[in-house]
Structure formats: C-alpha cells, structure tokens
Amino acid sequence: MDRRGGQQGTQDPIAIAFRARRPSSDGSLGGLRTHRGQPYIPQGERVLAGSLSTADYLRRIGVAQLPPRTSPFDPGYDATTLEGHLEQSGHLMSILKLSMACWLVADERSTRRKISAAKNHGVPVVTGGGPFEIAVAQGELPAYFALCADLGVARVECGEGFTELDIPPHEVVAMAHATGLEVQFELGKKHDGKFTTSVVGSLLRRGREWVEAGAVELVIEARESGRAIGVFDGDGNLDISTAELFVEAFGFDVVVFEAPTKETQFALMDAFGPEVRLSNVRLEELLRVEIYRRGLHSDAFGRSRLTPARVEES
Fold it and tell me: Of all helices (H) and strands (E), which one includes residue 39?
C-alpha cells in the first residue's frame, strides 16, 4: 500500500510522472494540471518515456472512451486465430456471432474451445439466424435451444430471412429464456432485395412485436454483400432515410445494422456517428472499424460526427 492507501502500481502514469517534478510556486504537485479531473500534460511539454499507455495517449488527443458497439462474426476461423483476435480486440466486441451453420458441422471440441475463449475475455457469443430458421422448419426448436445452452452461448438470433415463422414471438422468447438464452431478432428477407416503403412498415411492426416479447436487439439484414439488400441499394449506397426510420423507432441501443464491407461500415458511421451498432464485421476488419468510429482513420478525421474533441488545458 502507498501512503495514500492505494495499491502500488495502479495509479495513473501521468500523475506518477508529475510527482517527479519540482513543486510549483503555488505549492501544487509539480504544477500538475487537470482536464475534467484527470492529470493532464499540456501540449508542448516533454512527456517522460514510459509515462503514457496507449489509453493515456488516446485520452490526451481527445478520443472518447466508447463502450463496445461492434459485433464481429466468425464464419469458420480456426480456434487459434479466433483466440488471437479475442486477445487483441475482445474489449471492442459487443458480442461475437458464430455465423451461419458452420459451427454445427465443425469439430465440436473446436466450437466449445472458441466459446470458452470468448467467455474468458468477457465477450458473449450469439449464434446466427440460419440454424434457428432450419430448426423451426424441421420441428426441432427445443433441441436447438438446448444445444446452444449446453455449448455455452449467451444468445440466439431468430429470424425469418428465408423461411416463414408461424410461432408467436412471445412463445419463442419464453422457450429461449427457459434454457437461459437471450434473443435477438433479424429483420428482413435474404433474397428480396432492398427494403421498399411497404416492407419497412411491416418490419417496424414486426420489430415492435419482438421487442415487446423480450428481444434485446434487432438486426437489420445486409448479408455478406451489403448490396441490393436491406438499407443498401445495388451499388452498396446507404439509404439514410430508410435507416433513420429504424433508429427513430428503436434507438441505438436496440438497432444493429449489418455492415459487411468497408463502404457500408463507413457510410453508417458517417451518417450516425460513433453510437451506431454494427454487425457482420469480419474479425480482421474490427480494428479498422474502431479507428474510424473514433476519428482516427484518415477518412474519418475531419468529419464533424467522428473527429476527436480538441483537449483544452484547464
């Protein structure tokens, strides 16, 4: 313990650096200045080697601390590769999706290893919507939920992207909750192209039904192409007015936009800023998404919604 009652080695390195400086004429600790209550080294002053972490530096240049808002997907990476990404970027993942049905045909030991690794990094796991639809069509939904729960996933994605679902939302959610699983619901068909005005109206109603039944998130379909589907036209351009309807109806904490390409990812963050939730992001693209979200990408710096705030001395 140090003399202030705190654990040694846990203090802000900027403050530690300042303690080595001579007291100022007014008796303050080494002339220490603060910004929003945090120790701050004024621009232009020398920073001692080893006194800053990357987190300290990001705070110094005005980058906001953001909660995880990206759900990357695993389309079938080997377990070692996934573990490497979790070690590097797990703190940036809101939830990890086991995409499609790949995990069902992979060696189960590898699937369990991946789910366990995610848990160890504090990242929950969700299964994609395809296996859910097939389970319903084959009359094996209870068995599917039991399997997911046994594997250790936290959530299942439900949907009707390529089948018709005739089970009421509240029954599906109750069945999932009975096995300890959360539910998210995917809005949109996989083969019907860009959303039309009438389709959007029906999807908004459907989304309300699922949220009222207990779904924690609504995922807007975009598949792996981000072209001629959902809120994207045939060239991959974002229909902002359509996307806004979902945000206005459900808010950023519920709506998640699938954004499988650089163009779709950047367009959504340009339109809505750092709060927007994204999914269907490949693991190797996650860091690029997150530097864009924080205004640290050359194409994001200078955009009003994304540029880091300039830190002013206090």
Answer: strand 38-40
Q: Say if residue 38's pLDDT is above 70.
A: no
Residues 126-163: pLDDT tens digits? 999 999 999 999 999 999 999 999 999 999 999 999 99
Residue 302 lies in a domain: no
CB atoms within 10 A of CB 79: 19
Residues 248, 202 within the same domain: yes
Q: Are residues 135 and 277 in the same domain?
A: yes
Range of the domain at 47: 13-60
The answer as to whether 44 is a domain residue is yes
Collect all residues with Cβ–Cβ distance below 8 Å to 109 and sequence separation of at least 6: none
Is 169 strand, coil or helix? Answer: helix
- Compute, in degrees rounded to 10, the torsion defined by CA atoms 87, 89, 94, 100: -80
Say how many domains are in the chain: 2
The amino acid occupying position 82 is L
What six digits make up the tokens of 218? 């609504």
Domain match, 42 and 164 both: no
Q: Is position 265 within any domain?
A: yes
**H/E element holding 176?**
helix 169-178
- Cut 0.70: pTM above it: yes
How far is Cα 269 from Cα 103, in angstroms, rounded to an integer? 30
| Number of alpha carbons in the 13 Å side-chain half-sphere of residue 35 | 15
Residue 232 phi/psi, 5-degree rounding, is: -120, 140
Q: Which of 22, 94, 150, 77 is nearest to 289 (CA)?
A: 94
Q: Cα-flanking dihedrals φ and ψ of residue 128, to 5°?
A: -70, 170
CA distances from 32 to 8, 9, 42, 46 (A): 20, 19, 9, 13
